[in-house]
UniProtKB/TrEMBL annotation:
One of its GO terms (biological process) is cobalamin biosynthetic process. Pathway: Cofactor biosynthesis; adenosylcobalamin biosynthesis. Gene3D superfamilies: Cobalamin biosynthesis CobH/CbiC, precorrin-8X methylmutase. This is Precorrin-8X methylmutase CbiC/CobH. InterPro entries: Cbl_synth_CobH/CbiC (IPR003722), CobH/CbiC_sf (IPR036588). GO terms for molecular function: precorrin-8X methylmutase activity. Keywords: Cobalamin biosynthesis, Isomerase. Residues 10-204 form the Cobalamin biosynthesis precorrin-8X methylmutase CobH/CbiC domain. Belongs to the CobH/CbiC family. The keyword Glycoprotein does not apply.
Length: 207
């Protein structure tokens, strides 16, 4: 059988194919890198139309990473999907608070989702400036509330939760905030998308 074995060539070839099937002129260079990596991870060209960037969102994220800011993920799966080697090179860390005993206690006492409780705990660490949410709309809703209350000042919110209940609405609320954001419009998104976005941003510094 004849097939490509080199992982770098596979990625390069994938990006070439993607570039031929989307309108690259709609994006600047950094946006295009993110769009292509998300499509590479999902095989879904729709993301070239539904990923939206606020003004200076990428620049704000890169600056935060270079300053050693940490990343909060809404799930352990997203935490696992972020490239640890790239994180180490930029001096950053990623953490999900979803499984902490404190998270479970707050969730039970306050009758809220664990994802919401995890966000409440995460904002207590001032190093946590980059929030990546790919699974739980309630986490994004709670983060938005905390921003409005002046409890946290994120450098960027990557809001790409997937689902039919609350995901679209949470992302629309995020776009109303005076906070840098990267979102997927509608129901699409997910952990894979969030990881692809974060990794693409890390690679901009690392490579």
């Amino acid at each position: 059988m004849n097939y490509i074995k080199d992982p770098y060539r596979i990625e390069e070839k994938s990006f070439e194919i993607i570039g031929k099937n989307i309108d690259e002129s709609k994006f600047n260079e950094k946006e295009l890198l993110i769009i292509k990596r998300v499509i590479h991870a999902t095989a879904d060209y729709d993301y070239s139309n539904i990923i939206k960037f606020s003004d200076k969102a990428i620049e704000s994220t890169l600056y935060a990473l270079k300053c050693g800011s940490h990343i909060v993920s809404d799930t352990k799966m997203l935490e696992a999907g972020i490239n640890k080697s790239a994180l180490k090179k930029v001096g950053s860390e990623v953490k999900s608070y979803i499984d902490l005993p404190e998270t479970m206690e707050i969730s039970r006492k306050c009758n809220i989702t664990r994802s919401m409780a995890a966000i409440e705990i995460a904002i207590k660490d001032e190093k946590n400036k980059i929030f990546a949410i790919g699974n739980a709309p309630t986490a994004l809703f709670r983060l938005i509330e905390l921003v409005k209350d002046g409890m946290v000042y994120p450098s960027v919110i990557i809001g790409v939760p997937v689902g039919f209940v609350g995901a679209k609405e949470a992302k629309e609320e995020l776009k109303k905030l005076n906070v840098p954001y990267i979102v997927t419009e509608g129901a699409k998104g997910g952990t894979t998308v969030a990881a692809a976005i974060v990794n693409s941003l890390l690679y901009m510094i690392d490579r």
